[in-house]
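To the wet lab folks,

You asked to see what we're planning to order before we commit. Fair enough. Below is the target structure as C-alpha cells, and below that is the sequence we designed to fit it. If anything looks off to you, flag it before the synthesis order goes out.
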C-alpha cells in the first residue's frame, strides 16, 4: 500500500481519489459504517437526512473551470464522475425579529430586496460586492487542481496561470484581509453590517472581522455567477461520487474500520494500527481527523515535537451543535423554500448558542428524500460541549435545548409540532461520537489576521493532514481544496501538469 487515509470526510476522500487517479495504491479507513464524515447522509423510516452541510454552489456546470471555482466540481471532473443537481432561487430566507426577506442568487434581485429595507444600505452593499468580486474574478483563472502545499506550486502557477496572477496583483491586500476591514471601508448602515456578519458566520462560524475576504468573495461570486444547486440524493450523493471515483481508479474504502494509532518509527510514519490489533503498513499516512484528535488520539505525545503539539492543542475552536432532524407531514405547505436562517434576539450576538438557527428542508427540491406527502427537515444551532453528560438528566436536557430549534421552525412552519412523525435530537455528544470530532467541534476558530490555518504537512515524515483544521479551513469547498493540495504535494509537478492538460483541458501558457 502506498497511502493510508484515516477518515472519509470530503477532505480525505478528495485526497485519496486524486492520488488513486495519479496511480497510487490508496486505502481509506473509516471508523463509521457510513462514509462522508460531517457531510454524510443517513436514512430513518424512509427519510433521507443530511447530517451536516446542505448549501452548495457551482457543483454542476457545462463549462468546467471557466464557470466554477468549486474544488469539489473540479476533482469530480478529473475522476470522470458526474453529479445530478437541482438549481433554485431564492436560495433561502433570513428571518430577523423585525421581519423576513428572501435571499436571491441573482445579485440585482437581492439588492432590490435590500432596498425595500434600507435603500442607502443596499447601495453600500453593492459597493462591498464591487470590492470583493474582482478578487473572485482573478481567482477564477487559478484552478484548485493546480495547487499544492509546497514551494513547487510556484512552477505550476507561473507556467499556467501567469495572466491570472497578474490580474490578482491589485487584489493581494485582500487575500489575508478580513471581511470586516472591507465592510468598514464602505458599509455604515447597521442593518447591512449585521447582514454581512450573519453571512460570514454561516460560512466560517466567525463574524466579518474574523472571516477572511477570499472566503466571502468565493461565496458571492459562485452564488451570483454560477448558481446555487442541491445534489439529487442529498449530500450523500457527493460522497457516493467521490467514493465511486476513488474505486474507479483502483482505490479502496474500508468502513467500520477504526484506526487506533498512527505508527511512527524514528520520526517516520510506518503505518497504522486498528482497534482489532491489525497493522497495515504504508510509507504515507493522511489524517482526515481534526488536529486535536490527530495529536491526542492517533499519535503518542513523544511522536511530535512538544512545541508543535502544544500549539495545535491550543488552537481555539468553534462550538459544537444541537441538531434536530425531523420527518413531517407536508400537506398544505405551499411555496415552501428550502433554506432558512432565524435570528431570535437582536440584543444578543448572533454567535450566542441558540440565537441563530439554520434550517434546511431539501425535500422541497428532491421529493425522493421523504415518503410521499412528507418533508425532511434539518435544523441546527451552536451549542457548547462543556456540561454535556450521558446521565439521568440527558434526555430532559436534550428536549430543553431543542426548544430554540422548534421556535425557529415555527417562524417558517407555525404548526410544526403537529406535523412531526419522526424526531431525532442530536447534541454535542452525538456530534462527537458519530463524527469522532474533538468535543464535537465545527472546526478551528482562527480569526483573520490572528494566525492562519496550518498546511497539510507535519513534523513527522510521511504524515500529512487534510480537512477543516488545515488550510484553507472550514467548509465543503475548503476541505476539498485541502485534499487536492495534499494529494498534489505527493506527486511531481509533471503529473499535475499532465492531469490539467489531458483531463481538465486547462491550457498551458508558453513562457
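Sequence we intend to order:
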Amino acid at each position: 500500500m502506498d497511502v493510508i487515509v484515516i477518515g472519509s470526510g470530503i477532505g480525505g476522500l478528495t485526497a485519496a481519489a486524486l492520488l488513486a487517479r495519479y496511480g497510487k495504491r490508496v486505502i481509506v479507513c473509516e471508523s463509521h459504517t457510513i462514509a462522508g464524515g460531517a457531510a454524510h447522509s443517513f436514512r430513518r423510516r424512509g427519510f433521507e437526512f443530511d447530517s451536516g452541510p446542505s448549501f452548495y454552489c457551482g457543483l454542476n456546470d457545462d463549462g468546467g473551470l471557466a464557470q466554477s471555482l468549486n474544488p469539489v466540481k473540479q476533482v469530480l471532473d478529473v475522476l470522470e464522475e458526474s453529479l445530478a443537481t437541482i438549481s433554485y432561487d431564492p436560495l433561502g430566507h433570513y428571518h430577523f425579529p423585525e421581519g423576513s426577506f428572501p435571499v436571491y442568487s441573482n445579485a440585482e434581485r437581492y439588492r432590490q430586496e435590500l432596498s425595500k429595507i434600507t435603500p442607502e444600505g443596499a447601495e453600500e452593499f453593492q459597493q462591498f460586492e464591487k470590492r470583493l468580486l474582482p478578487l473572485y474574478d482573478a481567482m477564477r483563472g487559478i484552478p484548485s487542481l493546480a495547487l499544492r502545499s509546497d514551494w513547487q506550486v510556484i512552477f505550476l502557477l507561473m507556467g499556467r496561470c501567469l495572466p491570472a496572477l497578474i490580474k490578482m496583483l491589485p487584489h493581494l491586500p485582500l487575500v489575508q484581509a478580513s471581511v470586516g476591514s472591507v465592510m468598514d471601508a464602505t458599509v455604515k448602515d447597521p442593518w447591512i453590517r449585521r447582514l454581512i456578519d450573519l453571512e460570514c458566520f454561516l460560512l466560517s462560524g466567525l463574524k466579518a472581522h474574523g472571516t477572511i475576504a477570499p472566503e466571502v468573495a468565493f461565496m458571492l461570486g459562485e452564488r451570483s455567477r454560477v448558481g446555487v444547486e442541491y445534489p439529487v440524493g442529498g449530500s450523500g450523493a457527493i460522497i457516493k461520487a467521490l467514493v465511486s471515483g476513488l474505486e474507479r481508479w483502483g482505490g479502496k474504502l474500508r468502513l467500520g474500520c477504526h484506526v487506533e494509532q498512527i505508527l511512527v518509527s524514528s520520526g517516520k510514519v510506518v503505518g497504522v494500527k486498528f482497534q482489532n490489533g491489525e497493522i497495515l503498513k504504508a510509507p504515507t499516512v493522511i489524517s482526515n481527523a481534526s488536529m486535536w484528535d490527530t495529536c491526542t488520539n492517533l499519535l503518542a505525545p513523544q511522536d511530535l515535537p512538544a512545541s508543535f503539539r502544544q500549539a495545535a492543542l491550543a488552537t481555539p475552536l468553534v462550538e459544537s451543535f444541537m441538531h434536530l432532524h425531523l420527518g413531517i407531514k407536508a400537506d398544505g405547505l405551499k411555496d415552501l423554500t428550502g433554506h432558512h436562517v432565524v435570528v431570535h434576539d437582536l440584543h444578543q450576538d448572533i454567535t450566542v448558542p441558540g440565537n441563530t438557527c439554520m434550517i434546511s428542508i431539501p425535500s422541497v427540491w428532491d421529493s425522493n428524500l421523504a415518503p410521499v406527502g412528507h418533508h425532511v427537515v434539518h435544523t441546527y444551532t451552536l451549542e457548547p460541549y462543556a456540561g454535556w453528560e450521558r446521565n439521568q438528566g440527558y434526555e430532559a436536557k436534550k428536549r430543553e435545548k431543542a426548544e430554540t430549534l422548534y421556535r425557529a421552525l415555527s417562524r417558517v412552519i407555525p404548526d410544526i409540532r403537529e406535523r412531526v412523525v419522526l424526531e431525532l435530537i442530536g447534541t454535542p455528544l452525538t456530534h462527537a461520537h458519530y463524527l469522532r470530532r474533538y468535543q464535537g467541534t465545527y472546526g478551528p476558530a482562527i480569526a483573520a489576521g490572528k494566525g492562519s490555518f496550518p498546511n497539510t504537512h507535519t513534523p513527522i515524515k510521511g504524515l500529512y493532514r487534510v480537512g477543516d483544521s488545515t488550510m484553507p479551513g472550514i467548509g465543503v469547498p475548503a476541505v476539498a481544496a485541502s485534499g487536492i493540495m495534499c494529494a498534489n504535494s505527493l506527486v511531481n509537478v509533471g503529473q499535475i501538469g499532465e492531469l490539467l492538460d489531458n483531463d481538465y483541458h486547462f491550457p498551458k501558457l508558453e513562457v
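Structural context that might help your review: The CA atoms of residues 165 and 326 lie 47 Å apart. Residues 507-511 have pLDDT under 50 and may be disordered.

Thanks,
Computational group
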